[in-house]
Amino acid sequence: MTPETIQTASVAFPRSGPGLIRRIAGTPSGVFGLVVVGLLVLLAVFAPLLAPHDYTKLDVEHRMQGPSATYWLGTDNLGRDLLSRLMLGARIALQIAVPAVAIGVFVGLLLGLAAGYLGGTVDAAVVVVLDAIQSFPAVVLALAVLALLGSSTVNIVLVIAVAFVPSFGRVTRASVQSIRRLPFIDAERNLGAGPLRIIGRHVLPNVVAPLIVLTAMNLPSAVAIESGLAFLGLGVQPPTPDWGVVLSDGFGRIRDSPWPVLWACAALAITTLGFTFLGERLRDVLDVRTVGNRS
Amino acid sequence: MLRYTLRRLVAAALVVLLVLILLAALVQILPGDPVTLMLGPRADPALIAVARQQMDLDSSVPAQIWHFLVGVVHGDLGQDFLTKRPVSELIGAALPHTLILATVSLALAVVLAVPLAVVSAARQGTWLDRLLATASIGIISIPSYVIGMVGLLVATVWLGTLPAIGTGSLSDPLDYAAHLVLPTLSLALIWAGYLARLLRSSLLEVLGENYVRAARAYGVPEWRVYCQIALREAIPGVVALIGVALGDLMGSAVFIEVIFTRNGLGIALYNAVAERDYPIIRGGVVVIAVLFVLANLLADLANRAINPRLSEEAVR
What we know:
The complex is a heterodimer of chains A (295) and B (316). By secondary structure, chain A is mainly alpha-helical. Chain A has 11 helices and no strands. In chain A, α4 packs parallel to α7 (153-180) and α10 (243-252) packs antiparallel against α11. The longest helix of chain A has 37 residues, at 82-118. The relative contact order of chain A is 0.16. The two termini of chain B are 15 Å apart. At the A-B interface, α5, α6, α9 and α11 of A face α1, α6, α7, α10 and α11 of B.
C-alpha cells in the first residue's frame, strides 16, 4: 500500500497511532486485549531470553510437579519447566497463526475485490468457491489434508489459511459492492479514472477497517486450530513446545498431574480472549458494522 | 421455491464433488501415496501393487472419482484396507453417536441462549447486560477442546460424579444420557454464547418496533411481549444458523470425542488419520461434507418457509 492510500484511509476511520490505542484502552476489555496481545508479541520475540529455564532441559527427579519456587508453573512428564515451554509456545502459535491469517487476508482480499468489482460470472464463480470452502468444518478438512500431505510447518500454515479465505473474501466483496454503487464512483469513472485508481483510492481504504477487525477476530481461531491440530498429533510435532503438544503430553497423564493441561488451557484461553476483546473493541472504535463474530 | 431448492442442491452437489476432486488429486500429486504411508517404505512391491489396486489408485483422478461415486450410489464407500470391513459399515456404526452429540448440543445451546438473551434485552445497558455480553463473547472465543478439557478435569479428577469417559450404550438410555452431559456442555456453551448475542440484538430490534409499543400501550403483559411477540420474530434468525452450527459442531466433535473417548465419526476419522487409512478418511470426509451440506440446505429451506419475505437475493 502506498502512503497516499493510508492517508485516505485515515479519513475513513478515526485517528490512527497513539490516538487509536488510547481509544482502544477506553474500556477494561480493551485494556485486557491490548495487554494480552502486547505480552504475546513480546513473548514471541523475546521468549528464549525471558524463559527462566531451558525448555528442553530434563529434570527427571522433579517431573510432574505442581508450581514451586524453581518451577513457577510446575514441570511436565519429563521434568521440563512448563512456564518456559508455554512461553516458547506463544512464539510458535504466532509463527503459524500470523502467516496463515495473512495469506487468508491476501487471497480473500484479491478474490473479494475481483468478485465485487467485476461482478457477473467472476462474482458467481468466486461465491461458489467461497461457499465450497466454508461449507466444510475447517478441522476436518485440515485433518484429511495433513494426513495425506504430512504436517510440515508450511502445510499447516496453508491448510489453516484456506479456512480463513472465505470470511475475508466475503467482507471485501460486500464492502466493494456497497461502495461501487455510490454516485461518486460513476463520476470518477466518467472523469477517466481507471479501475486501478478507483480500487486503490476509493475501494481499498474503505475495506481496510473491516479487514483489520476481522483479522483480530480470526487470529484466535487460527491459534485454536493450530493448537488443536497439534493436540491431535497432526500439527506441530513434539518435542517443539507448542501449546497443543503440551496439552496432548499432559492429557495422556491427566490423572497423575493436571498441571500441564491446566496451564496450556489457560494459555489458550487467555490468548483467544485477548485477541477477541481487542477485535470487539476495534470494531467499536473503528465503527465497523459489517463484521460478524464468527466466520 | 422449487427452482431455488434445485439450485441449492446443485450447489451442494458441487461442493461434495470439489471435496472429492481435492482428495483424489492430493493423493495423486503427493510423493508419498497412502499405500506407502501405511505399509512403510520397505514393504513388498507386490503387496504395494495389490493395495494400490484395491484402493483404485492406479486409475486416473476422474476415473477414481467416478468409481467412488458409482460406489456411493450403491451404498458402498469402499473397503477399509486394514480390517477389510466396508467403510460404510464402520461409518454407519459411528455416525449416530456424533449426530446425537451434535443435535443435543445444539438444542442445549438454544435452551441456554433464550433466557440469557431475554434477560440481557430486558435489562439492556445495565451492568447485568454488560456482564452477560462480556461472558458470552469470552466463551465464544475459547476453543471447545479447552472447555472440554477443563470440564473433564473438574468433573472426573476432582468431583468424580459423572461418567466422563466413553459413550455408554444406547440400550441403557439413562447411562447414555449421563455420558452425554459433559461432552454436550463443552460443545453447547460456545454456541449458547453466540446465539444469545444474536438473539439479544434481534430482540432489541423487534422491541423497538411500533407495534410492540402499541401492544405494551394496550397493556399486554411483559412476558407475552417477549415470548409471543418478540421471540417469535427473533427465532428465524437462529434457524438460519442451524446449518452452520451443525457443521461447526461436527468439526469440534472430533476434539470432544477424542477427549472423552466417545464413539463417533470424529474419533473414527482421527484413528484413520493416525493410521493413514485413506479409504476411511475419504469416506468420513465425504459423509461429513454431505451431512453439512444437507443441514445447511434444510436450515435454508426452513428459514424461507418461516419467513417468506426473504427474496432469493437476500439469502446470499
